[in-house]
Design a protein that fits this description.
Length: 227
């Protein structure tokens, strides 16, 4: 038996868009190096960056029926996040499904499995992060859960949590943490901007961080030759 949750608490879109101004690496660092999805999920084209509310979906291996069910729950600003109940790499998603989701205002797809129709998806500008590209199609026989908490590529994701994805990967931010993570990300970017200027002027990171004096204590020796 599977369930479809029809009433989900989403994150306000002004917060989703504010968080989406920052890169995945910045957000990951800002929230204590948490929330990253596994690096096997890669964008099918670059450059690309999106943010949105997680629309979660479970699929059975070789069966994309629940993705078709998820379209009915989609709202503008969502990102479809798909995880299989067992590892698989079939092409669960292609041009026709992307057309349907785009019509509902969905901003992209994150899937720990395969996709196909990559040329068409790229041409229509529908962003996808996938674990595989595979022409093998799927059946539509066994529904999975939609809009429930899932684990996708090693990260726990709830409906309405915020997904940010770019060329570096995918990160999830818990909806109740979004305001704090925005502030922490902004502070991190401001600090990095100041640091970037000093590095550009020729200063070294090891000096700016005060680590040079620790080299000896760490066992580092400077010698004129290794011979």
């Amino acid at each position: 038996m599977s369930i479809v949750v029809t009433k989900v608490q989403r994150t306000a879109m002004n917060l989703v868009d504010a968080l989406g101004q920052f890169g995945v690496a910045t957000i990951h660092e800002a929230q204590g190096r948490t929330g990253l999805l596994a690096p096997r999920l890669r964008p099918i084209y670059r450059p690309v960056r999106i943010s949105g509310n997680a629309l979660t979906c479970e699929v059975h291996p070789g069966d994309n029926l629940s993705i078709h069910i998820a379209v009915d729950q989609a709202q503008p600003g969502d990102i479809l996040v798909v995880t299989p109940t067992s590892p698989c790499d079939e092409g669960f998603f292609g041009e026709l499904l992307a057309t349907s989701f785009a019509a509902r205002g969905v901003r992209g797809l994150v899937i720990d499995a395969g996709v196909r129709d990559v040329a068409e998806l790229t041409e229509m500008g529908f962003p996808v992060w996938a674990a595989a590209i595979h022409a093998q199609g799927t059946v539509k026989e066994n529904p999975g859960n939609v809009q429930t908490m899932i684990r996708c590529a090693g990260a726990q994701i709830r409906p309405g949590d915020v997904i940010v994805a770019d060329d570096d990967g995918v990160v999830v931010v818990r909806r109740e943490d979004v305001v704090n993570v925005i502030a922490a990300s902004r502070a991190r970017e401001e600090a990095e901007a100041a640091l970037r200027g000093r590095l550009a002027s020729g200063e070294l990171g090891i000096d700016l961080s005060g680590r040079r004096d620790h080299f000896v204590d760490m066992g580092v020796r400077f010698v004129e030759s290794s011979e």
